[in-house]
Design brief:
The protein is an alpha/beta fold and 188 residues long. It has a 5-stranded mixed beta sheet with strand order 2-1-3-4-5. The radius of gyration is 17 Å and the shape is globular.
Length: 188
């Protein structure tokens, strides 16, 4: 099995590896999966500002990585796109949550999974909605570059949940139809 990840960022790739390790306990096909990180930054959206845009960004990454794959053979190929962004919470428009989504395809089937949500402090939300990059905002708040490591998730949760954790959860959820196919194919 070959797992193509539409990113070279360590937190995303490590999140996928952690998800595969967890899933391998339920489906041995994932135990020996080969993970290939592919840079598809050219299709990555600028900070998605709605849940729909986050999901579409993940789908665009998975599509791009699958389209760029040239290897042929009997291996099962799964393309994974991961995307994070912010989404308004409630009708008031003054609360925003950081969300993470995964989109996975084998070339014919699609699946999606979310990695949770954490409320942004109002000052952070205002800065991001005003056009600042979330990574720049969290780096400034932390006083050191953390966007590629702890990220906003780590900063906001005092490292109880990190970027890698959010991506792991999204991938485990999105992989469910692939490691639990009988349930997803059943008729009630």
């Amino acid at each position: 099995m070959i797992i193509l990840v539409g990113s070279t960022r360590a937190a995303k790739v490590d999140g996928v590896r952690a998800a595969l390790e967890a899933v391998a306990d339920r489906d041995a096909r994932f135990r020996e999966a080969v993970v290939e990180a592919v840079d598809v930054a050219d299709v990555a959206p600028v900070m998605p500002m709605t849940e729909a845009a986050i999901v579409e960004g993940a789908r665009a990454r998975a599509t791009a990585v699958m389209n760029r794959h040239t290897r042929t053979g009997p291996d099962t190929i799964l393309a994974i796109g991961l995307e994070g962004g912010v989404d308004p919470v409630g009708a008031g428009g003054d609360h925003y949550a950081l969300k993470t989504w995964a989109a996975i395809t084998d070339g014919s089937r699609w699946s999606y999974g979310a990695g949770g949500a954490v409320l942004l402090p109002r000052a952070v939300a205002r800065a991001v909605v005003g056009g600042r990059e979330l990574g720049d905002v969290v780096d400034a708040l932390a006083g050191t570059p953390i966007r590629g490591t702890r990220g906003a998730w780590g900063l906001l949760t005092l490292d109880l949940i990190g970027r890698r954790d959010a991506f792991k959860l999204a991938v485990v959820a999105a992989l469910a139809p692939f490691y639990n196919p009988a349930l997803y194919a059943s008729d009630l």
